[in-house]
Amino acid sequence: MDTNQEPTQEMKRRGRGFAGMDADRQRQIASLGGRASHQKGTAHEFTPDEARAAGRAAHARGNAHEFTPEEAREAGRKGGQARGANRHLQPQPMQQQ
Question: What pTM was estimated for this model as a whole?
Answer without folding.
Answer: 0.33
